[in-house]
Write the structure tokens for this entry.
Amino acid sequence: MTTVAAPSAGTALDRVDGPEKVTGRARYAYENVPADLAYAVVVQATVSRGEVRAVDADSVLQLPGMIATIWHENAPRLAPVEDAELTVLQSPRVAYRGQVVAVVVAETLESATEAARLLRVDYRPEPHDVELRPDHPGMYRPDHVNPNYATDSELGDPDTALAFASVVVDATYTTPAQHHNPIEPHATVALWDADGLTLYDATQSTSGVRATIAPLFALPPESVRVISPYVGGGFGGKGAPHAQVVLAALAAKQVGRPVKLAATRRQMFAVTGYRTPTVQRVRLGADEDGKLSAIVHEAFEQTATIKEFAEQTTVVTRMMYAAPHRRTSHRLVRLDVPVPTWMRAPGETPGMFALESAMDELAVACGIDPVELRVRNEPTIDPERGLPFSSRNLVACLRGGAERFGWAGRDPEPGVRRRGRQLIGTGVASSTYPVYRMPSQASARAEPGGGFTVRIAAADIGTGARTVLTQIAADALRVPPAQVRMEVGDSALPRASVAGGSSGTASWGTAVLRACEGLMDALHRRAGDVPPGGLEASADTAEELRSQRPLSRHAYGAQFAEVGVDLDTGEVRVLRLLGAFAAGRIINPKTARSQLIGGMTMGLSMALLEESVMDLEFGDYLNRDLAQYHVAACADVRDVDAFWIEEEDPDLNPMGSKGIGEIGIVGTAAAIANAVYHATGIRVRDLPIRLDRLIGGGI
């Protein structure tokens, strides 16, 4: 047996896949080039609602290098499934502008692109509706919101409590549609052989893609293999399969050759999902000391006509602050728009922008420091579920962050601090994210030549999951990380849950640890002897998760922002951004800090820049590229830092960890908006904080 090594978890281990990435040896989905490869390019609808009457397929088939034009009249038939987003090219109906109506296949990408450009499609257009408004007559109450939360909640009598409250905040906040824009496109290489279908796919869940694609093509799951060892960012957009996966498989089946298909940047704005826009009304009632008596949070959102996706926008309000009277609700309208999907911290991100902005408005109305107001409304148990918290260190984050940020002595008066031609202000917001743990499987193998191989179909989407899992396995096996080979990103490996919901380390780590523990037990029984064929153990965590006791499990944080607003132009610059977090045990400080800062940078981008603009006349997003859809760049992030407090929580998982991939974004936009108010005296309730919203507001 190998000598017991020093613990790896808790150390800042460099990424184990770093050399592959920086030298270009890491192969992403689109970089797989099987023999006899053909290229596919999609053709998108140019109407927002209606039917395809005809496709002039023959005209482009005469072009050099063309192999096939596939549309609803000649496409292979797919098995009927509930998810209409995936039943592509099965019907003449057009549900939104940009929906795929045809796909062309050619010998080269250039030929396919030219054919797609020239393909003529005749439509029977119908009037469309793409405008989200809270008074829309089509608003309805969905059965549940993502992933399976109750649509509404109510305790006490919030309307009466609001009527008798000494201080009331009643405000409406809006967030626009936002698109993921990962650097790696949504791409798939599909090939069929005697064993079935193989997909090289850019995905956050190889197991999930297999489970979704197999029934579409009437295949048993074991006949579909999904390979994705490296993913160049996902942010939730690659959490579930979209049209391009099905189209690649469908086209490859039709032409009898491997097919490569990638959604272009512009196509991505229609066919790979987005964060739904929201309209949110928040009402807070409190006494003169800022103690909340009532919280009402209502959200209005959009979904597509072909598929429902209901963002859990107000769910976060159900557990954040103590108040005896409370109500939350979600209402949805089906519009002729693309299908929304998960985007980093779905629900919590837009929901906390509204709630934390309203809390800042309450602090101003009561004349109470914003940090102190939040502390005064700290609950002792989950306010709506009535469950104890496994751990809740929000107050520690607020106090610790305030001390490090230099919050003490902050002048609450808005619009009075100048630095040259800039107005200076500071703001704070709380953040939180639930602790999820999903069933997964893993195997651990002692190799006869020495070392260990651990296998799980997890996805490393750039977060460092492969590295952290290596550390967990190394500690369980009592060896240095260099002796562990971690295999991920292949549906042929033991089944793993999706890389989403900040659940990866908790879900996969539990399975990896249990498999390694089983292997250590087997080795102990053999006195450390490894047979010539190796020795393997496996684990399935489903039963362990079913037996965990009911608690309210969440990570917490507090973001602090300092902004400078140009007196002449209204330009906002974030001068400092600090996050304080309580996220259980930190397995790798280096990857953790990277994720927290990355989330906060994305929150800054949400606050100041990101906005998908809908053209109401044509029913399409106008700014469909990185030249017009603006995201934060290095120059926008002047001084950003994150730290965490030590937190022990034995009721989470064997590692004691909480997810950190998403909590960084949650409170950032509100902290920045609150700082802008402190700087200017102008309350911006509609994101992003554009120049015209400040200049027009009287800066």
